[in-house]
Specification:
The structure is a homotetramer. Chain A is an alpha/beta fold and about 375 residues long. The first copy, chain A, has two domains: about 140 residues, 3-Layer(aba) Sandwich (Rossmann fold); about 190 residues, Dihydrodipicolinate Reductase, domain 2. Chain A has 13 helices and 14 strands. The first copy, chain A, has a nine-stranded mixed β-sheet with strand order 13-12-11-10-6-9-8-7-14. Chain A has a five-stranded parallel β-sheet with strand order 2-1-3-4-5, sandwiched between helices. In chain A, helix 4 links the parallel strand 3 and strand 4. In chain A, helix 1 packs across helix 12, helix 5 runs antiparallel to helix 13 and helix 10 packs across helix 13. The longest helix of chain A is centred in the C-terminal third of the chain and has 19 residues. Chains in contact: A-B, A-C, A-D, B-C, B-D, C-D. Chains A and C meet through helix 1 and helix 12 of A and helix 1 and helix 12 of C.
C-alpha cells in the first residue's frame, strides 16, 4: 500500500520557477507523488513536460475542468487527493472554489484571490468542504520564522509595541524608466496584475509575516504609494503605517524599485523585554536584541530551538537550508493535515491568512486613493 | 605666533559625554586651544574642571554673560574666536544669538533651537554677523557619508526616487514601562525636552542625513507617533512619510523604544542606476547596490574615494576611525572656515541645516497632531 | 518510456542524515527514481523504510551482494543504472569496487576509501569499467564555489600565491572532556573511524575545495595535530602547511573542537590581481577583494555569473538555495554523465578527487607522526 | 599647577601617520602636553612642524642627544616626564636605553628593538630605572580586546585548547610583482627592515594579542615563510604553528600579500566552555560562540562589560570608537602609571611584551631558516 499522497498540479510547467519550487518541495520529505496534472494550457506542451519529468501521461488532462471531471470518476483510493494551484493569479479563485466544492484538498499560491470578495466566497466554500486548504506563504516555512512565532508565544519579547517589516526588490527598476518598455511589462498592466503591484505581490508577504510571527492582528492601515511616472498606473513602491492594538504601531515597507535589492524581506519586532530581527536572504540567522544583555544570534537545528522550528530542520547546525526547504516544510505540514495526522498550529498558512491578505491589499489601495487616510481592516 | 584657534566652551564640564566628544574632536587635528570657558553653572565646579583638564583658570567665567563681556574687552588677537555651545537645548538659541551679535564664530550642538521661529531669528542674526556658524550634526563627518554625497552629486545613482532612513534606539524602553519611573525621565517631560522626543532628538539626524547626502529637499511630511502610554506626552516612536519632489518619496523611521537597538542610524538611497546603504554602527562600510552588477563595499582611505571623503580620513585603509574622528572632521572644516581658508561645501552643517531641522520637527508634530495629515515644509 | 535514471541506494535508511541529503538531492531536478536498495543491514528495517518513503519493496534486497547478483539478472533496461553509496566509510571501497566491476555507475560518499592503496585499486577498476564515478564532495555543488573556479580559470585573480582554507566544527568538544564519555565516541575509535578524525572527516573537504577552485595541485604538506588528551588516539584538531608550486603556499585548518563553530568551511584565495573569500554557512555570498577597487559581493542567479554557476541555480537572485541544492547540482551533473549527455568539467568530483583526498589524509598523518615533517603528495 | 604630563616626542613629524596616531591619542583624555620634541632629523623641518601644530619652539632640539642633555639641565618640575618614540625601528633601542638610563618614562612604538638581545638589555635597563615603560601594541587598547582578557580570566571559556590568530594585509602585493619596483621598497630591504617583514611588522601583533587575551605563553613555534620571488629576501607571508602548553595548540597567520585585505587582524580562541572571535576592522563587536547556546555578540559600553573594558569606553553603546581611541586608552593607562596612580594590569603593554615579541620574531625566522623546525621561546 503506497503511502505517498496523490498530488495533482495545475500550472507550473516548462521553465516556470514557481513550478520548480513546488515540485521540489513536494519531493523533499517523500510525502507526495504527482499522479495528475494540467501543466500548461497547451495540451501537447503539458504532455511533453510530463514526459520530461517522468510523470505518467495517462492522467495529464487537456484542461482543468476535464481534470476535475475525470478524477471524480476514479475510485477515491486512486483519485488525486490534493491539487497544487500554480497558475496565474486570476485563476486561483475559480480553480480553488471548484476543487473545494468537489472535496479535494488544495494547496494554493498567493495571492489567494484577486479581490477580498472572492476571498470570502472561498472561505465559505472551504468551511463547507471540510478539506485542507493551504496557502503557500513560503517564508513561514523557514525554521527561524517559526522560532520567532514560538518564542513570542512563550513570552520571550514581553508585550510587543512596534513592528517594522519590509519587502524590497529592485527588479522593476530596469524596465520602468523607458516609456516604451514600461508599457510592455505585464506586472504594470492593471488588467493583468490586479489592483496592486508592490503591495499585492510582495507587501502582502510582509503583512503575513507580521501576523504569523507576532500573533497580532493589524487593525488599520494608512498607505502612500509611488507610481514613479504619470503614465504608470501600478504602485511600484509604498509605505504602510499600521496599527495593531492600543499603542501598538508599526509599518510595512514595500518596493520593486529599491535598486539592487534582490528579495529583501525583513522584519524587526520590538517588545518590552527584547526584540527580533530576521532577514530572508540570510534565513538561518535570527537576531535577538536586548537593552541589557548581549545580542544573541539563534540558528536552526539546536537543542535550544522550539519544536515547531526543529520540525522544519533536516540537517545538523551549520548546513544551510534555503527556500526549497522552507516551502517543503509547508508541504510537510499539509501532508500531515491531509492524512489526518496531528499537526501544530503554524505548520502552514490557512484560508484565514488568504482572506486577511486580500483585506490588507484592498485596504492599502483604498487608503492611498483616499488621500492617505486610515482604513480599517475587517 | 601661535596658530591654534582660540576656543571657548559653554557647558560640557564634568562627566558630560557631549563635552568629551567636542573636546576630543577639537584636539584631533591640532587646530584649537581652549582658552576660555563656562563649563558649569556652578563657578567652583567650572574652575575645578578647568584645573582637571589643565585649562588656565584666568579666563574661566562665572556665567555666559560675563564671559562675553570680559572677552569683548580683550584685544581681538587674544579674544576667543569661536565658542562651542554644549549646554542644554533651551540655551542654544540665546547663547548663539548673543555670540553672533558680538561677532564670535559659533559651533553649536543640535537641535539648533527649540522652535522654528527661534531658528529663523538666529538665521537672520547669522546673516548680519558675517561669522562662521557650524551645527554639529556629527554623522555628516563620517568619510563614507561624505562619499555618498559626492558620488550622488557626480551622478553615480542617477535620478533618486526613494530614500529610507531610520534612527532606532532602545534606551527609553527600560524606563518607560513603569508608571512611576516614567514620570521622572526628563526626556519625557515636554517642559524640559521640547515639542518632540524621538523626532526632535534623533529623527532630525535622519532628516539631515537625507538632505546632506542626496542634495534633495524634503517638501512635505505625514507623521504618526507612538506615545506607548496614555499618560505619556512625548513621542517615543514615529514614522514619517516624506515627499521630496515629483515621484520622489521615502520615509524616516525613528524610535527610542526599538528594544535592543543602540544607535542604529541607517540610510538607504535608491536611484535609477544604483543604490546606497550605510549604517552608523559600522561607519566605515558603504554598500552600493545595483540591479545588474555585484554589490560593492566601499571603505575609506582608498584612491577611489572622493576628495571630500579623503579629507576626513587620517590613517590608511583598515584602521577604523569612529565617532570622535567624525566630529573632528566637522571641527576641521570649521577651522578652515574660521581661518578664512578655502573649504569644501559639505565640510560642516550650516545654519540652513539648523533651520530646516527645526522646520522638520515642527512639521512632524503638526502632522501627527493634525491626524496624520501631510504638512509642507517651508 | 520513462526518462528517470534508475537509482539504487546503499545505506541511508531510517534517520540517516546523509540519506536525507542524497534522497532529496536526487529528487530535486526530476532525474532519478529509486528502484532498488539496501537501506539497512537489517532486512526488515530496510523493507519498513522502503514502505515509509513509498519505494516498491520488490527490489529491496537483504544485502549488497544479493542486490548486485539479482540486479545483474535483470535486463539492462530494467536494471539499476547507478548506485549511491551512503554506508559507513569502510564499506565504500568494497561496494564501489564490485559495482564498477559489474558495470554500474557509482555515486559515492567521501572519504572514497580508508587508505590510499584502496583508492588506487578503485581508480584502476574505474578506468577499466568505463562507467561514471561521482564522489560527493557536496560543497563543490554550490553556485558560488563554481563561480570561483570559473573566474579563476578566466584569470580574474591573476597568478595565485596563497590559499587559506579552514573547516572548523565544535561538536566533539562536548563529548571529549570527560574521560568516560570520550571512550564511547566511535569517531574517536581508530578501529571504526580510520587513521584520522578531523583531517579525514572534514579537512579533506577543505583540501578538495582548494584543488577544485584554484585548479592547483597541492604538492606537499607539513601537519601538526592536537589530540587534546593522552588517552585519545584520534586527531580532533590540526593545521597543515601546504605547498602548491614554486612560491605558492598556504594552509588548511581543521578542527572538531573549535567551540561553538557549526560547519565553518571557509576559503581565502589570494592572487596577484584580486582575492576571493567564501564561507559555507553563507554560501550565496562570494567576496572578491582587491587592493585598488571596492570589495565586491557576488551572488548567484545574475547575468554576470558564469555558465557553470548558473547551471546550479534554480531560482532568481535573493532566493537562498542551500546544502540540498548544492548536492542536487552534483546529482544533476551525474545524471548528464550517466545519460551520456554533454557536461562541463567541474559539475561533479571525480575518481581523481577521491584518490587525491586519500593521498592528502595519509600524508598529513605521516607528517604529524614523523615529527611535523614535510611529506610530498604523489 | 598644571596637571598635564610633560610629553616629549621623538619622530612623528610631517605627514607621519604614526605621529598623528600618537598625538591624537595623547590629547584624547586631556592628560598630556607636548613640551619638547625632535620631530625630524632636519632641525628646520622640526621647527616648522612645531609651529604648524602650535608647540612652543624653545624646546625643539636639533637631535636626540641634545634633547636629553638639555632637558636634564632643567629642574625636574619642568623637565619632560615621558618620551614617546616614534622613529624608525632601529632607533627604538638606543633611544629607549638612554632615556631609561636618565630616568625618563618611555612610550615606545613596536617592535621594541631589532633583536632579542637588545630587548634583554633594555629590559635590564628598565629594571634598574624604576620608570614606566609602555609598548604601544595599539590593539590591546580596544575595549572588546580587554573584555576578552577579563572574561577569560574570569573563566568564561573554561580551559583554552586552541587559538587561531591572523594579521592579513595586501599592501605589498601592488609593489612586489615588478622586479624593478620591488628593489625600491624599503620594507623589502633587510638592512632597513630587519630580520622579518610580515612577522616582525604585523605577525607580532597577533602574537601579542594571543598572550594578552588568553594569559597563556607561547612556548614554541614552527614557521614557514613565503618570499614570493627568488630575489626577494624578506618574508611577505608566513604561517606559524604554535604550542602553548600541553595539548594547547594553535597558529598565527600573517601576510602582506593577502590581496585586498586592509588590516585584518583577527583572533579566534576556543575553550572547553565557549569561544571568542574578534576582528580589528569591526572592533566594537565581540562574538562569543558556544556548542549549546546561541551565539552572543557583545559590544562596548554596557553594564555587562568588565571594568577594564569600560575604562576604555568614553561614549554610550552604539557610538563606534576606533583606532585613535584604542591608542588613547594605552596613553591613559600610561598617564596613570606615570602619575603613580593605581592602574589595572592590562592597561598598557609592558617591557615584557616587548621582550617576548622579539623572542617570537627571532624564533619564527630561526624555524623557517632551520627548515620548518620547532623552536622554543625562552
Amino acid at each position: 500500500m503506497p503511502k505517498k499522497i496523490r498530488l495533482g498540479i495545475l500550472g507550473g510547467g516548462g521553465d516556470s520557477l514557481i513550478g520548480v519550487l513546488h515540485r521540489v518541495a513536494s519531493h523533499i520529505n517523500d510525502n507526495y507523488q504527482i499522479v495528475s496534472a494540467v501543466f500548461n494550457p497547451d495540451f501537447e506542451q503539458s504532455l511533453a513536460f510530463a514526459r520530461q519529468i517522468d510523470v505518467p501521461t495517462n492522467r495529464i488532462y487537456k484542461d482543468f475542468d476535464t481534470m476535475v471531471e475525470e478524477e471524480m470518476k476514479l475510485p477515491p483510493e486512486q483519485r488525486v487527493q490534493v491539487c497544487s494551484i500554480q497558475t496565474p493569479n486570476f485563476l486561483h479563485f475559480p480553480m480553488a472554489k471548484k476543487l473545494l466544492d468537489n472535496g479535494f484538498h488544495v494547496i494554493c499560491e498567493k495571492p489567494m484571490t484577486t479581490t477580498l470578495q472572492e476571498a470570502k466566497i472561498l472561505q465559505e466554500a472551504h468551511r463547507k468542504s471540510g478539506t485542507v486548504f493551504v496557502l503557500t506563504h513560503t517564508y513561514t516555512g523557514y525554521p527561524m520564522v517559526r522560532e520567532m512565532r514560538e518564542m513570542i508565544k512563550a513570552g520571550a519579547l514581553g508585550k510587543i509595541h512596534k513592528v517594522d517589516a519590509s519587502y524590497y526588490q529592485g527588479w522593476i527598476n530596469p524596465v520602468i524608466h523607458d516609456p516604451e518598455v514600461r508599457k510592455t511589462v505585464w506586472r504594470l498592466d492593471p488588467k493583468k496584475a490586479g489592483i496592486s503591484s508592490c503591495m499585492g505581490d510582495i507587501g502582502v508577504h510582509a503583512f503575513n509575516l507580521i501576523e504569523y510571527t507576532t500573533g497580532l492582528k493589524i487593525n488599520s492601515v494608512l498607505c502612500d504609494f509611488n507610481y514613479l511616472y504619470d503614465d504608470n498606473q501600478m504602485d511600484v513602491d509604498g509605505t504602510v503605517l499600521i496599527r495593531m492594538g492600543k499603542h501598538i504601531k508599526g509599518l510595512i515597507r514595500s518596493s520593486q524599485v529599491a535598486t539592487g535589492e534582490e528579495n529583501a524581506l525583513t522584519i524587526n519586532i520590538y517588545g518590552e523585554k527584547a526584540g527580533f530581527r530576521w532577514e530572508q536572504e540570510n534565513p538561518n540567522f535570527l537576531y535577538m536584541t536586548s537593552d541589557t544583555e548581549a545580542l544573541k544570534v539563534l540558528k536552526p537545528g539546536h537543542s535550544y530551538n522550539s519544536k515547531l522550528s526543529l520540525a522544519g530542520t533536516k540537517l545538523p547546525p551549520g548546513h544551510p537550508e534555503g527556500i526549497f526547504d522552507s516551502m517543503a516544510n509547508i508541504y510537510l505540514g499539509a501532508a500531515r493535515a491531509i492524512r489526518g495526522e496531528e499537526y501544530n498550529d503554524g505548520e502552514f498558512p490557512t484560508m484565514l491568512d488568504g482572506v486577511r491578505g486580500m483585506n490588507f491589499i484592498e485596504a492599502t489601495v483604498n487608503s492611498h486613493k483616499g488621500g492617505n487616510i486610515w482604513v480599517d481592516l475587517e
